Amino acid sequence: MNETPVDPEQELARLRRAAEKAGLHADVDPARHGLAFPSADDLLARHDGPSEVDVARRRRRRRVLAAVVSSVAAVSVFVLGVFQPWQPDGAAASTVPILSYEYASAKQIATAPGKDARETLRSLSETAAEQVEPARGGSVQYTVSDNFFLSATVGGDEEPEVIPTLLQRWLTSDGAQRSVEKVDDPLDDSGRGLSRPGGWDSLPVRGDVTQPAGEIDAAALDRLPTDRSKLRTALLELTGCASRDRPDRPMCLYVHILELHNIYVVPARVDAAFWSLMAETSAYRLLGDVKDRAGRTGLGISLFPESEPSYRVVLIVSPETGRLLGAEDILIKDDVAAKITAPAITSFTAFLTARWVRSAS
To answer: What angle do CA 190, 299, 185 make, to 5 degrees?
Structure first.
């Protein structure tokens, strides 16, 4: 049988998307992960060498973000096992209904411009900054997210059922993390119906993995300054998104707010700082009111990434608390090789619970 040649660039892009769906964001720009590999010009400019303080700061940032990336490696096998566009004779990929927003219906999601989001982002920043953190019920950070990763089957005409994956994570103070993956109930026809708090206790377990102590800097967010101006600067240093000139800075901020929420119980002041930083650019577009996958009221804030022109990404934020509710990755150009017709949801994440508990169980 004659096979259609695979475009290496499209193949690489699909593999990157598969990694990103597990939180393993595939942008290999070292700055995204806090790494600073010097160029020849950098070496000449720094011939006197960095100070010990600068070296220590870079090492600390590398440890934090390397841990953020490694902490989701346990679920990468699941993603690669489900989304394999390199398989021959793949049936059309299964996806979920696209949400409709106030300023962008599901049918118009690929082209609807939305509105300037800067004023809304500033308002969300103020709202988040006003939130009072609840008392901590222990020293373990417990987070729950519900996720959908685009699936494809080999052979046959029937598409697989769209079933989200629920991830429970416990991060202990010594940097160990337990991750439990469960099979959630299928979504309803509207693309909603995620489990509510407590509703996932009886779901079937797909995997249970514990990373050893020291893998993650559990106190990284606690050490961030409380002063709002200093916090913004520290957050840019932590994420590697400091340069205003880098064309992918909007995507850098998008990626890192998701990475932090995937690992930590993120303080409201950190969300506030992210919205404040995002409000500095017109790259983000307001899509308006939406009901998220869990039926919660949110505001859609979208971005057309310069580095990935086939996609539109969306953050969903609570207008009542200024807290991040979730994110959606939307394919807006057909992927012929993977047999995906745009527009299509390739992944979503809904953050359902984030609190401090007594133990990792």
So the answer is: 35
Contact 131, 322 (CB under 8 A): yes
Tokens for 136, please give them.
């901590």
Q: Give the type of residue at 234.
A: A
**Rounded Cα distance, 114 and 213, in Å:** 45
| DSSP 3-state of 315 | strand
Strand partners, 355: 142
Structural domain count of the chain = 1
For 15-37, what is each residue's pLDDT tens digit? 555 444 444 444 444 333 333 33
β-sheet with 311-317: strand ranges across: 115-116, 285-291, 297-303, 311-317, 324-331, 344-357, 140-149, 165-171, 177-183, 205-211
The domain in which residue 33 lies consists of 8-357
H or E element: which one contains 208? Answer: strand 205-211
> pTM value?
0.76
Helix (H) or strand (E) segment spanning residue 276: helix 268-278
- Distance (Å, rounded) from C-alpha 217 to C-alpha 130? 27
Residue pair 343/108 in contact by the 8 Å Cβ criterion: no
Amino acid letter for position 274? F
153, part of any domain? yes
First CA to last CA across the chain, in angstroms?
52
